[in-house]
């Protein structure tokens, strides 16, 4: 299933099924001032806004860039069997999930808000300093790695391996140095995103 197919029944600004009043309601739900500004001038942006009233279930990979989604609201859960990926461009690039996020892998660069838990089979990776994650629940993953990317978790971070900042000489308790991770093959931090996109194994 493609990202386009997954969002086929979603309401969309470009399709004319989301008007400015609905966008303003979405902005209030997300609680972000800059989204209200975007809602008032959505036609000036190159990307699209989507609203999914229930769950979003994807058999395969889900990438916001495939549909030029710069704003996505899902009132229910997001379940992706493969890679979930959001991006960060000139727009706010905001994803708001009212339930849980479940995926094989997660690669986030934009602003990701999850009101439930994040349950990842393999890797949960954040990359790019303009974005951030806000997780109201807990996180489960094999690997949790934030590269110059803020992530606030109100619940527990139960990842098997939490990567320490590679720029730091001291390793905080509960975190693991990159060189000490049980990789399936030799890999550098800059190679991780490509490996996830190719759906290659990262950890043994």
Keywords:
nine-stranded parallel sheet; alpha/beta; 204 residues; 16 strands; 14% helix
Any overview of this molecule?
It is a single chain. With 204 residues, the protein is α/β, with parallel strands linked by helices. The chain has one domain. The protein is built from four helices and 16 strands. The chain has helices at 3-6, 20-30, 33-40, 192-197; strands at 11-12, 48-52, 56-58, 62-63, 69-74, 78-86, 94-97, 101-108, 111-114, 118-120, 123-127, 132-135, 139-140, 143-147, 150-153, 161-162. The strands form two sheets. Strands 3, 4, 6, 8, 10, 11, 13, 14 and 16 form a nine-stranded parallel beta sheet that branches. The two termini are 28 Å apart.
Topology:
Layout: H1 3-6, E1 11-12, H2 20-30, H3 33-40, E2 48-52, E3 56-58, E4 62-63, E5 69-74, E6 78-86, E7 94-97, E8 101-108, E9 111-114, E10 118-120, E11 123-127, E12 132-135, E13 139-140, E14 143-147, E15 150-153, E16 161-162, H4 192-197
Parallel strand pairs: 2-5, 3-6, 4-6, 5-7, 6-8, 7-9, 8-10, 8-11, 9-12, 10-13, 11-14, 12-15, 14-16
Antiparallel strand pairs: 1-2
Helix pairs in contact: 2-3
């Amino acid at each position: 299933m493609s990202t386009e197919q997954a969002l086929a029944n979603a309401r969309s600004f470009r399709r004319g099924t989301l008007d400015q009043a609905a966008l303003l309601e979405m902005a209030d739900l997300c609680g972000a001032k800059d989204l209200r500004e975007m809602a008032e001038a959505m036609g000036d942006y190159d990307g699209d806004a989507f609203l999914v009233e229930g769950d979003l279930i994807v058999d395969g990979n889900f990438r916001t860039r495939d549909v030029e989604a710069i704003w996505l609201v899902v009132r229910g859960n997001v379940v992706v069997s493969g890679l979930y990926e959001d991006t960060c461009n000139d727009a706010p690039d905001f994803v708001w999930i009212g339930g849980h996020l479940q995926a094989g892998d997660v690669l986030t660069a934009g602003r990701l808000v999850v009101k439930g838990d994040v349950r990842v089979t393999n890797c949960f990776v954040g990359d790019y300093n303009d974005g951030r994650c806000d997780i109201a629940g807990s996180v489960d993953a094999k690997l949790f790695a934030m590269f110059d990317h803020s992530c606030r978790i109100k619940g527990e971070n139960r990842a098997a391996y939490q990567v320490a900042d590679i720029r730091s000489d001291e390793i905080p308790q509960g975190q693991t140095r990159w060189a000490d991770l049980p990789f399936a093959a030799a890999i550098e931090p800059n190679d991780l995103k490509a490996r996830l996109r190719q759906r290659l194994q990262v950890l043994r």
